[in-house]
Amino acid sequence: MSLQDKIRQLTELRSQARLGGGEKRIDKQHQQGKFTARERIDLLLDEGSFEEYDMFVTHRCHDFGLESQQFLGDGVVTGRGTIDGRVVYVFSQDFTVLGGSLSETFAMKICKVMDQAMKMGAPLIGLNDSGGARIQEGVNSLAGYAEIFYRNIQASGVIPQISAVFGPCAGGAVYSPALTDIIIMSEQTSYMFVTGPKVTKTVTGEDITIENLGGADIHTKKSGVAHFKAADEKEGILLIRKVLEYLPQNNLEEPIITECDDPIERIDDELNEIVPEDPNKPYDVKDVIHRIVDYEEFLEMQRLYAKNIVTGFAKFGGMPCGIVANQPSFLAGVLDIDASRKAARFVRLCDAFNIPIVTLVDVPGFLPGSFQEYGGIIIHGAKLLFAYGEATVPKITVTLRKAYGGAHDVMGSKQLRADLNYAWPGAEIAVMGAKGAIEVLEGRKLSQVENQEEREAMHQKLEEEYREKFANPYVAARYGYIDDVIEPRNTRWRIARALRSLATKKEVGPPKKHGNMPL
Fold first, then answer.
1. Which residues, other chains included, contact 231 with Cβ-Cβ below 8 Å and sequence gap of 6+?
2. Is 389 noted as a catalytic residue in this protein?
3. 269-432+472-501: what fold?
4. Alpha carbon 46 to chain centroid, angstroms
């Protein structure tokens, strides 16, 4: 065979590999509203940047008739490319090949790009669309999953790991995305569960649909497993590119600072009026966030889950940061189990990748009740404490209105080593609200006043005295727990200047293998 013949053979084999499971299966994929594995990579990466690995790999199984079902690439497309010029490593599961089921060689291909990503210190992106383990390969398939899981664990906190679920992700397959930093799901075409509807019905008797068991709505609203829900795959891929704007290549690099012509000294007078005079009246903290960040751009994470706390990425003067904010317009911004877990996870993500944390506080406390106590609010609240206390990135906290009790401590307090703590003039920092405090402290005295009007007047007077003496920012400022009381309209430039001054922060904790976080 001449060299030209060999080149023609190579070209034919490449064409064969690019067809995956064949035209019919590709058409079926499109009919279901899904892209193919290669189409997803083309949308994700910069044009012409993709370098594929292991295109000619095939499985090694000869049982159950698999020897007659050989497909080049064996159901997963792997390689490297660039996003906005930054090197990333990617694997994209191909449902057109044996349902995207994972074989020994399928896992080997994924492990190879994971190892490469770690060596090069580059983000890893997984596009998931798989029916799970290839049953015909038995324990070899399970071993393949475990090899991937181990690498996910080793890469955690070293390189950013992003998972997009664009189809089925069931059984053992769900644990790889669960071990990554960010999970994106697409509406109607993706689902995740450990055990499917049929087995669930057999074992428990529960009759439930795929969507209600593990669809994108469930995991972005109820379980909190997924961070973003995309309307379709195209939006999901754009979200991957957007998230990477805020993350560095690895844990040894800083996030990329971009040019910004939105002046940091921009003043917004409406911030002076944004918090209602009535301490019990809600407002939307996202209105505050949008007014203080660059170009009013805020990439919110887990938007539909635990809405009493807001987390997400933004920039100040082109510098990426993470924002954690209590949300007074939902459950009064109280901290509960879900909010504590959500915020703790986000704080740890920011700390792992050198992203400064800005905390906006308006919290009346932890949610009381047997449901919360039985669910372990003590442990879950401690997770948030642990995350803030452990974080060594620059930490800036602004108390907007309420900061009561243990919730004050949890939300980036000075004692958890926040670098700069600011408060707006109307902030109340105390063990509890004035009304509750007076009922505890002066309840007996008040009960002795028989006239209701007199009792109410006395209660109001005592409340005002309590606020003046304890529940204002100047008491905390007197002790140095608040570094400055700032005018709300100046919040943007105070934060932006603080971030610049803290850019060289270095903090090293005591030597240890790792802490024992209250899981």
1. 186, 187
2. no
3. 2-enoyl-CoA Hydratase; Chain A, domain 1 (3.90.226)
4. 24
Cβ burial of 401 (10 Å; 0-12, 13-18, 19+) is: buried
Q: Three-class SS string for 31-47?
A: HCCCCCHHHHHHHHCCC
Q: Out of 37, 122, 352, 407, which one is annotated catalytic? A: 407
Parallel, antiparallel, or unpaired: how do β-strands 168-170 and 191-193 relate?
parallel
User: Which residues, 6+ apart, have CB-to-CB distance to 332 below 8 Å?
Assistant: 280, 282, 308, 364
Contact assessment for residue 37 and residue 77, using Cβ atoms and an 8 Å cutoff? yes
Strand partners, 296: none
- For residue 410, which amino acid is it? V
Domain range list for the chain: 3-244, 269-432+472-501, 434-470
pLDDT of residue 466: 78
In this structure, are strands 76-83 and 86-93 parallel, antiparallel, or unpaired? antiparallel
Q: What per-residue confidence (pLDDT) applies to 473?
A: 93
Which amino acid appears at position 438 of this protein?
I
Rg (CA), the chain: 27
- The Cα-based distances of 366 to 344, 373, 378, 510 in angstroms read 15, 11, 10, 30
Catalytic residue, candidates 157, 196, 389, 406: 406
Model pLDDT, residue 68 = 67
Low-confidence ranges of the chain (pLDDT < 50): none
For residue 286, how many other CB atoms are within 10 A of its CB? 17
Catalytic residue list contains 172: yes
- Give the pLDDT confidence score for residue 65 in this predicted structure: 65
User: Distance between CA atoms of 393 and 356, rounded to whole angstroms?
Assistant: 5
pLDDT for res 21: 85
Over residues 384-400, the pLDDT tens digits come to: 999 999 999 999 999 99
Measure the CA–CA gap between 266 and 291, rounded to whole angstroms: 10
Distance between CA atoms of residues 225 and 178, nearest Å: 7
Q: What are phi and psi of 91, to 5 degrees?
A: -130, 145
3-class SS at 496? helix
pLDDT of residue 114: 98
Length of the chain: 519
DSSP run (H or E) holding 147: helix 139-155
pLDDT at 60: 77
Reply yes or no on whether 318 is catalytic: no
**pLDDT tens digits for 436-484?**
777 777 777 777 777 777 777 777 777 777 777 777 899 999 999 999 9
Residues 310, 154, 101, CA angle at the centre, nearest 5°? 90
**d(Cα 330, Cα 373) in Å, to the nearest integer?**
20
- The dihedrals phi and psi of 304, each to the nearest 5 degrees, come to -95, -5
Distance (Å, whole) CA 317 – CA 298 = 14
CA distances to 191, 388, 408, 421 from 415, in Å: 42, 10, 10, 10
pLDDT at 323: 98
The single residue of 172, 318, 375, 376 carrying the catalytic annotation is 172
DSSP character at residue 256 = P
Whether 503 sits among the annotated catalytic residues: the reply is no
Q: Which CATH superfamily hosts domain 3-244? A: 2-enoyl-CoA Hydratase; Chain A, domain 1 (3.90.226.10)
